[in-house]
Amino acid sequence: MRIEVDCQAIRHNAAGVVKACAARGIEVAGVTKACCGHPAVARAMLAGGISLLAESRLSNVRRLREAGIKARVMLLRLPRPSQAADVVRLAQMSLNSEVETVRALSRAAQAQGRTHQVILMVETGDRREGLMPAQALDAARTMLGLPGIDLAGVGTNVACISGVLPSRENVQSLVDVAESIEQALGIRFRVISGGNTYNLDLLDDDEISPRVNQLRIGHGILVGPPTPHKPLPFLFRPAFNVVGEVIEAQTKPSAPEGQTFLDAFGHAPQWEDLGDRRRAILAIGHQDLRIEGLRPRRPGVTIIGASSDHLVLDVTEAVPPVCVGDELEFDPIYAAVATAMASIDVRRVVKPMETERRGVCPLPT
């Protein structure tokens, strides 16, 4: 299988997000982690007007640097204290919630003669990273006094591990924490990092605090709106295409025969008996990418299930009919892009940026 990456579309989408956010004084941190820090994707984001890249793994940041990309980089995943020296050397900014980790960053920054910017993460409901609001002031006071550390601001993250959606209330709770710290310590934060792609809905509804001046956007640039029923406030172009080859196409009973137990992944699938159906198998499996994140493009094709190496489709109503050797295309959601780009057995075909010409959707003005 292969995943095709359209860098011109990424550039277009980045420009749209930057424009929508800039109108409200918000900087966009372009998140490249789903593409494992692929330099072509990063360059497309930069060409679209993004000046701050965001990554979760130091190996990806290293890949960007080795490709000659000198843009500022924010480390999204909380740093490991044991990697403090590399964090300071490779990234200009990192998200943090542990004072001891920031102490390690401080020591590394002093040793390298650098200043490292820190965003103090605050918990606002999703229960992933971040200090509880009552702990934030003491942590900020300590971080503010560490040499080599620039406590640039505070941030939060939702809509990830618990699926808590950003709201006017939880974003405002971050701003309230920030302003209480500012008042207590006599400072003014330069950065209020209010969240991710899901916050663009709040932005479009004018429900986000004017103090929020940074969003970390990957999903919205790479695969579009997280809620398909509500378009984002910019003209989105699909940037990814997953392609798999048909290795079997046969008519079979739709229900399994014999005693059933758990499948290879510990699940107990339920099968509806629809009689004989035309089925196709593709050389794609869970070991290649997150199958649940694929949406077939050919009309009449539905996903039945998958094992490690095989994707089973119902193609009875497919138009045109599906035959062995055919290539079928899929729209991937974010999870499928992230896993496919990280898989060693998935071929990546990167389509470079093109000059604007007839037939190519222009960048937003």
Explained architecture:
The protein is an alpha/beta fold and 365 residues long. It has ten helices and 16 strands. The strands form two sheets. Strands 1, 10, 11, 12, 13, 14, 15 and 16 form an eight-stranded mixed beta sheet that branches. It has an eight-stranded parallel beta sheet with strand order 8-7-6-5-4-3-2-9. Helix 1 (7-22) packs across helix 2, helix 4 (84-90) crosses helix 5 and helix 6 (133-144) crosses helix 7. The protein is elongated. The two termini are 36 Å apart. The relative contact order is 0.15.
- What is the radius of gyration computed over CA atoms, rounded to a whole number of angstroms? 23 Å
Helix content: 25-40%
At the fourth level of CATH, the homologous superfamily of the largest domain is: Alanine racemase
Which CATH architecture of the largest domain is right? Answer: Alpha-Beta Barrel
* Shape summary: elongated
Q: Sketch the major β-sheet.
A: 8 strands, mixed
Structural class: alpha/beta
CATH topology of the largest domain: TIM Barrel
- Whole-number count of domains: 2
Average predicted confidence as pLDDT: 93
Count of helix runs: 10
Termini Cα gap: 36 Å
Strand content: 15-25%
CATH C-level of the largest domain:
Alpha Beta
Low-confidence stretches: 356-365
Give me the count of strands.
16
Strand and helix order? EHEHEHEHEHEHEHEHEHEEEEEEHE
List the keywords.
single chain, TIM Barrel, Lyase, Ornithine Decarboxylase, Chain A, domain 1, alpha/beta, 365 residues, 10 helices, eight-stranded parallel sheet
